[in-house]
Amino acid sequence: MKKMSTIFVVVFMNYLYQLSEQTCISQSCLTHSLSCSSGQVLSVRAAYYYKKSSGPCADACADPTNCCNYKSGDFSVGSLEPATLEYIRHECTAQQTCTFTVPYNSNSHYIFYNTVCVSESKVLSLLCKDSVSTLFQSYMFYHGRHRSDSKAVTCSCEIDAPSGELSVRSEYVNLHATTCPSFSTSLSKVNLNACGTNGLQKQYGYLGKVSVPLTLDVKNLISRSSDVFWLLFQGAGSEQITVTCQGCGVKVTGACGRTQHVFVGCYGASSCNSHTLTCKPGKFIGLTSRLYRGRKANAASCTLSSCNTVADCCEYVSNDPRELLNQKETERIHASCDGKETCDFNPDLSNPAFYTFSYYVYDCIPSTSFVDVVTGGSLSGETELFLTYKGASRTAGTSTSCSCDITSASFPIDVSVYRLSLHPDSCCQFKMSSSLGALPSACAEPDGAKLYTYSFTSSSALKIQLDNMIARTGDSLFVRIGSASGIDASCGGCFEQPVVEDATTVCQYPKNETTTEETATGASTGDNGGDEDGNIIAIAAGTVGGIVLLGLLIFAVRRFMRSKKTDPLNF
Q1: CA atoms of 379 and 486, how far apart (whole Å)
Q2: What Å distances lie between residue 282 and 135, 257, 452, 461, CA to CA?
Q3: Is 536 exposed, middle or buried (0-12, 13-18, 19+ CB in 10 A)?
Q4: TM segments (predicted)?
């Protein structure tokens, strides 16, 4: 794909960014991408085929500077086909970035995309139980692809503003004939036409003024992935607009509070190797499993000496090869970014002559969706929540015993671990029990337990138990729990007390000890076979006092060895 840079940007009241991009079209470059900056999402308003007025452009992709850059005299040869534009909108609407394939048009040299980047903080999904207050503009949004349920839901949103009147625009409405009737009571309230035999389709356009407060509702709405209902409400001057939605009580993918973002940056010399991941205030980073470094498929001009300053070197398109970060890099980026509003990460330059870009996919999660295991709290009826435990926030030299109970009106419950990191002596003191067993499923010396982006489904209630768990700075838990029927979580009872060292203070791991017969033989010949404990046991056998002394000695040695270990980085 050959894509020219944006040729103009118009800023309206610092809230909305209108972009126009030109992308080459020929048989060799039919994969196109559109994108917004972090914290913004796309709205595709129009797209046109354009043709150069002069010049040899038999293959526009071979010469994008001259063949795909708008110049005076270039002319439109028509809009994209309705089916193609609908497909692009389906792929791109309310996404930060999208990639799609367009059909070849032999009568044009490039496509002129008229897109808008909307601040995600101004968009509230009809599916969400939430409230958003913004200045000047606010969006109410529904996209069927965010649903994975088979329910017929009824829910509503209220829009209000001090002036009592707002202008309303359609960003994009596409409702199928079978689902459009579910919106019927709301359509006339915002000056939209009634449903027809083909449902309802409305492109970007002004719909008029409406009185507020205004309640928009849907009744018995089933899931259909092609449905989109996206309206813009605009006030006078800088008045505050509030949109409050009651939620639909169904499992939602990336539409309720949690939003997904993509960072793509240069991978090369240290001067361009600082990567910044950012969420808007009040949201916190959760890294997904899609953490890559990659190389351009055509990377002849992407050299370390240029710090990948060639425009295409640091961009990703669908045919560029990528590979996941290794375990060390995965641990480093999680330690740097998980649970923070913003983070700076400097990847190791293991092969800067080969890789040209980094590609990270991460979630931004609202603070209201978190429940801390130790400080306690509860949430009820949410389709997803996030449990955290941070040893670094505990009081040093203390232990605690408490629990969290998580249940749902119906099952299954989905569990996705962003990060689980436990010291070897914390593994036996922390447990998440489910129908599939318990986490952590495997611990070992000297690393304890480390899990990243691990998922499972439970058909029963979950319980998280801390059993005399000592405060260790490197211990952390960051896990998403979701259910289409809503989640009820209650955590509490964690009271810290000074550590009292006993047999539960450390975890017991199997040792590769010699057999009884070998131990006896070694003792009789004076050869302990390298097993010092075996020799001590043989000497102490038959005396109760010796056994007690041995137990105290082993306990003291294990405590000493554990104290010499370095905890992982804080969460």
Answers
A1: 10
A2: 17, 10, 24, 29
A3: middle
A4: 536-557
Output the CATH code of domain 126-246. Answer: 2.60.120
* Dihedral sign computed on CA atoms, order 104, 105, 108, 113: negative
C-alpha closest to that of 214 among 172, 237, 244, 239: 244
Which CATH superfamily is 259-366 part of?
A: Rhamnose-binding lectin domain (RBL) (2.60.120.740)
Q: What is the pLDDT of residues 211-230, one digit of tens each?
A: 999 999 999 999 998 999 99
Convert the pLDDT of each residue in 153-163 to its tens digit. Answer: 999 999 999 88
Q: Encode 353-413 in three state secondary structure.
A: CCCCEEEEEEEEEEHHHEEECCCCEEEEEEEEEEEEEEHHHCCCCEEEEEEEEEEECCCCE
Q: In the numeric block, which tokens belong to residue 12?
A: 């309206």
Domain boundaries, the chain: 8-119, 126-246, 259-366, 373-498, 516-563
Q: Which amino acid is located at 35 in the chain?
A: S
> From 3.30.420, 1.10.10, 2.60.120, 2.60.40, which CATH number describes the 8-119 domain?
2.60.120
Decide if 78 contacts 71 (C-beta within 8 A): no
Residues with Cβ within 8 Å of residue 494, at least 6 apart in sequence: 373, 374, 375, 376, 400, 401, 402, 466
CA 428 to centroid of chain Cα atoms: 30
Residues pairing with 12 in the sheet: 16
Specify whether the CB–CB gap between 97 and 33 falls below 8 A: yes
pTM to 2 decimals? 0.58
Nearest to 257, CA basis, from 232, 286, 233: 286
Tell me how far apart the alpha carbons of residues 48 and 114 are, in angstroms, rounded to a whole number. Answer: 8
Q: How far apart are CA 411 and CA 492, in angstroms?
A: 24
Q: What is the DSSP letter of 120?
A: G
pLDDT of residue 65: 73
d(CA 48, CA 76): 6
Whether the domain at 8-119 and the domain at 259-366 fall into the same CATH topology: yes
- Dihedral sign for Cα 245, 251, 257, 263, please: negative
**What tokens does 110 get?**
């490039």
- Contact yes or no for 244/213 (Cβ under 8 A): no
